[in-house]
Amino acid sequence: MKKIIENFIAEIDRKNSHEPEFMQAVREISENVLPYIVSQDIYHGKNILMRMVEPERVLMFRVNWVDDNGEIQVNRGYRVQMNSAIGPYKGGLRFHPTVNLSILKFLALEQVFKNSLTTLPMGAGKGGSDFDPKGKSDGEVMRFCQSFMTELYRYIGPNTDVPAGDIGVGGREIGYMFGQYKKLKKEFSGVLTGKGLSWGGSLIRPEATGYGTVYFAENMLKHISDSIKGKTVTISGSGNVAQYAAEKCLHLSAKVISMSDSSGTIFDEEGIDKEKLAYIMNLKNNERGRISEYTKKYSNAKFLKNKTPWDIPCDIALPCATQNELKEKDAKSLINNGCVCVSEGANMPCVPGAIKVFKAHKILYAPGKASNAGGVAVSGLEMAQNSLRYSWSREEVDSKLQEIMNDIHASCLTHGQEKGWVDYEKGANIAGFIKVADAMLAQGIV
Length: 446
Ligand code: NDP
Ligand code: 2IT
Prior knowledge:
Rossmann fold, binds NADPH dihydro-nicotinamide-adenine-dinucleotide phosphate
């Protein structure tokens, strides 16, 4: 089996060796899914995983815009349309200076399995730009978004490809892109998700990824007859996912002691309560400030410059910032400090060596494609509401979200149950694979 996996990865590596993040995601999936394929006659010999890791289409385009000084700027835009076997391409847009094809292909591939797990009819895609929204005026962000959509609008649509937010893309950016799409197409449709409430958005969509990550952690704990109540939690990031993960932890009576951004971590031993979290939300979402400012307002807290939260003792760790932010040494430190549960809010935040450490110690570890699927799940519910031309109440959407996270947990159990513990990574990969593979087989070689 080892040989089959190595040969398969070598074949993909031949074409993609310059894309390390993409190859990392391919390896993780292959190690779980190939043994399953070999054991199942219906999938064996169909080259099905090879077909799944090759994007159906990759779009790359120039984005020109004019900054506040009248200078002409040039960025690169992308959309990776990965797989449409079970529905229109669906997945976020990321605006960050590090964005490149490797990162977007890894995110698009993860999205195939994640969207399948949600139980909703969504294919997978991912896109974005190397544009950096940090330090830009609203006018600059608007002009960039309009220029980006002036090209992208040709390739998307409510039944073709439905983008949403990711790092650097929130309600403001979705608004500007939606406005430009509507103007160019002369059509008001559910072409993007994460829209504002008065123009087709869904209640709970901003909260969904963070809430879902905590619901998933609660599911894992419940399975071993434990709960999140009274637990100490460290969270990385302070953006959309981190903020609402923190909020849900507070709802469930856990204590959150850290949040971070790319300049460092705040450590508040007394706990980040509701009022302090409201301060962080305003700081990050309205003032677009840095997390270090927290310690000016709350002087008991420490700012750990250029540090991640992973050396701070905790029961539960929620990595909610970015890929490969939690290294092998961090995993060892978490284990040594008594951490029992890691639920990924970000996509691929733990390096392979870190995952190995978690598995060796048999702690509860959930891969992002399962634990952060709540965001895209509520995007799917936003699409459903747009099609119905109707909107559901907060309670209705939240209870559907909880049901979906419960279903994803159950799927992970079905395919990941081992002797005395659950391999959530294996469970998520196999369960996600089956639905897409079956649809691809039924639709022929296209
Ligand atoms: P935001 O842009 O709202 O926040 C990102 C946060 O992560 C910020 O605090 C940012 O700090 C930090 N961060 C970004 N890059 C780095 C880096 N290289 N090193 C350290 N910190 C970094 O994004 P989201 O909260 O939406 O996304 C966070 C993660 O969750 C991503 O992995 C995303 O793919 C994933 N995700 C998001 C979903 C969504 O619905 N939004 C759904 C599922 C997954 P700084 O401000 O300093 O850059
Ligand atoms: O990684 C993700 O799942 C997202 N950024 C959300 C995608 C979506 O379409 O809501």
